[in-house]
Amino acid sequence: MQLTLVHTRYQLLEIVRIPIALIGSAFFPAAAMLFFVVPFAGKDPVGATYATASMVTFSVMSANIFQYGIGVAEDRDQPWNPYTRTLPAGPGPRLAGRVLAGLALTYLSLLPVLVISATLTAARITPLAFLLAIGTVAVVSVPFTLMGLAIGYSLPSKAAIVVAQIVFFPLAFGGGLLSAPGEAPGFIEVIAPYLPTRGAAELMWATVGDYPMRPLSLSMLGVWVVVLASLAVWAYRRDEGRRFS
Amino acid sequence: MLLARADQVTRRYGDVLALDRVDLTVRAGEMVGLLGPNGAGKSTLMNLIVGLRRPTSGRIELFGGDPRDPASRRQLGMTPQETGLPGTLRVGEVVDFVAAHYPDPVPRGELLDRFGLTDQVRRQTGGLSGGQRRRLAVALAFVGRPRLVLLDEPTTGLDVEARRTLWDAIRAFHADGGTVLLSSHYLEEVEALAERVVVIGHGRMLADDSVDAIRSVVGVRRVGFVADELPALPGVVRSELIDGRHHLLTTDADQLVRDLVVAGVAFSELEVRPTSLEEAFLAITAEERPRDEPPVTATAGR
């Protein structure tokens, strides 16, 4: 446990030393808040609250896909990573440290969205719902962490960057994150429930408002978690087999 | 007491045979040099000993256990490749990170002092010179007060002064009772540090002997000349006939030339050249030698 925290701290240190990496995952959702949410839904308390929750989901998704997808792929290129495996600890603390650091950075990347929402829109949230939402963010991180790990462990870093970028926008758009609940264009309403972003967004909406979750989206989210977990485990094992067996 | 042992270890990467039935023992207090040309299998053997890789067949023991079990690595020190240090972390942070894995690490100041890095403690490793990075990489092997240290090409590409600093630190560790296994493709480095030399080539163990015995083998010369028929000549390790020119590898070129003269060989265009380490290794790994014959050339003196 102590070692996990040591690894977490050093992962964070490495990232914080190149602060532009932090700005990357926080930029898109913050920009979307400024350009779409503030002018169009800013005045309506309910709409602004849902829109903020959508942008939080967007932020969680992009932060996780990018930091794991690209971070893990880059780490695999570095000889430092095998060196740490000669220290008297298994790969566990390093992986656990990476996930903890990832979660911390995910929360950090939400700050701009929250600040914009609190200062420039009419969005409202009760303290209890806010605390619940903090927990929901951790839950919603799970599928996207797994997706990032699957990308990072299965692809070389140059390919991982491209795949992460290709994947995240359709997921955000197709999941209906860029429109109010139930008001996305018709075809998106049809495909949205089958994307992990929708189930994640509905969880967020239900946490901050009265949104009734749809069983289809929620069960598809469960299916995605299982599929992505299997993919991540497969990619991790394959990588271990290639480099450490 | 055996600290590390390889028992008939074979390692394949796909179709490539990186190590072929290698036996190696490292006892407490020894300073063993692992000598061989690039691609000989030195790094593979080291990776097996520290548990990064698993042998395809055979057995590796580290402190009596499986090196893939973290507990077996508690008294092991290993050095990362200098290019692999995390560039954004400071020197002191990298040392602290590694130290966190050991119960009783060497205090940071003491370690950095020993490797001449005290002034660099606040520098990011990405901004260090090549020599400083290399010294830091080697220093990391000593953080956890190891009993056995593995150094893979510790001073390759360093200037003379940096090399001396590292050699002194390695010698001091050994003088305190520490055990060292270091690989190099420089005979000079192995001569300066090691007492015992293990030579690997093409994945096979070619020799395991004292530095002196290995030096005599590696001191092979190439004697070339043009001549017709050659009588049987003593002391020839290997002979080739290329475009009418004979190339003889021998440990005693003077005696060979005398023998040629005494035998009345009508030779011309005589040339005597030192062989590179690589050539000497090739001489003892000569393809003609049946695979199962023991590597006699190098161990004959024992």
From TrEMBL, chain A:
Transmembrane regions: 20-41, 47-66, 99-122, 128-152, 159-180, 216-236
Main location: membrane
InterPro entries: ABC2_TM (IPR013525), ABC_2_transport (IPR000412), Nod_factor_ABC_transporter (IPR051784)
CC annotations in GO: ATP-binding cassette (ABC) transporter complex
Places the protein is found: Membrane
Alphabetical keyword list: Antibiotic resistance, Membrane, Transmembrane, Transmembrane helix
Annotated membrane topology: Multi-pass membrane protein
Domain ABC-2 type transporter transmembrane residues, every copy: 6-202
Domain of life of the source: Bacteria
One GO term (biological process): response to antibiotic
Official protein name in the record: ABC transporter permease
Automatic annotation (TrEMBL), chain B:
GO cellular component, one term: plasma membrane
GO molecular function annotation: ATP binding; ATP hydrolysis activity
Subcellular location(s) per record: Cell membrane
Pfam families: ABC_tran (PF00005)
Span of domain ABC transporter: 4-227
Keywords, comma-separated and alphabetical: Antibiotic resistance, ATP-binding, Nucleotide-binding, Transport
Primary location group: membrane
Coiled-coil segments on the chain, per record: none
Membrane-topology annotation of the record: Peripheral membrane protein
GO biological process: response to antibiotic
Annotated PROSITE patterns: ABC_TRANSPORTER_1 (PS00211), ABC_TRANSPORTER_2 (PS50893)
Name by which UniProt lists this protein: ABC transporter ATP-binding protein
